[in-house]
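Students often ask why we bother encoding 3D structure as a string. The short answer is that it lets us treat folding as translation between two languages. Here is a chain of 355 residues written in the first language.
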Amino acid sequence: MTEQECTRLAEAQRICDALLEPNAERVDRSGQVPRANLEALAAAGLADGTFGSDAFRRELVEALCGACGTTYFVLIQHLGSCGQVANSTNTSLRERFLAEMITGNHYVGVGFGHLRRPQPMLRATPVPGGWTLNGTAPWVTGWPVLSATIYGAHLPDGKHIYLYVPAREDDHQRVSAPLPLCAMNATETVEATLTDLFVPESDWVRDGSPEQLAASDTANLCNNVAPMFGVTQGSTRLLRQLAIKKPFPVLSQAADALQTELEQCRERCFTLADGDKSAPEWREQALAARTWAIELGVRAAHTAVAAASGGANSLDHPAQRRMREAMFYTLFQQTSEILQGTVARLARVPTAAPR
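And here it is in the second language, the structure alphabet:
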């Protein structure tokens, strides 16, 4: 990382330690987007999704997820949107919105995870001057703080289109009440229903295709593991705290073992992420590394739950939050390939071959 990236990362860690993690259980139970957390990160220049190397982004995500999953999950949608707008060939879109986006004054969410589903849920129809959108985007995170959403939709020819849409409710754009999730209810994630919503050509972000999305998912098999690494780090810290209070040497031993395994898994994942993706065995090795990271995060959180004893039954206990977040990240950006690989690893099915 560059010196500037190291400085930014140190400031991010300071905010995580001083603000995000101490208030994570309160935020988790509040049911409301943590605006103060987002404002603190934006003030530190960390709402700029156009900035940073892969190494910086991985470290930032791990730090955020190790502190407060809710804050991370709202912010990451916006960081992704910053990158989408920054890389768009639509200069008008960049000039109108990017400067405010990177300062955190104009939050933009995403609504295109559904494009991985076998049947189209949101369709775009070309009309004079733009497109009309019809259908449902089942996951739009952080709705109360959003100024806009980038929706992904299927075109009549089967390709994808990504469009910028202001976040306002009317007869053409309706959102549900916040969805009851297993974790991170405070992200205020909603389902958006679009009916004959006109989007002008000026708000086009980019085009895509199912093949490009699948290729991106494969290329990022080992890039999207930092959330689980954050959960593992947080669970390990909690184990060390419990080891001070309880006279069981196994707690600190478990923390040491998990930390060692985390370092090994991290090195393996990022070596593959930065390696030659055309190598014959790369995809199989990357999938194995991804599922290792998933299993490790769940196992670390489960270990913290066991060590916390009956206290972990409380919704206010950090061990329970870690466990729920580990479940959430198990499904984060899951493809059919990752689903099969994860199930095979967890169930110890040696002959399972993802298709």
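Translate back mentally: The CA atoms of residues 150 and 164 lie 5 Å apart. Keep this in mind for the problem set.
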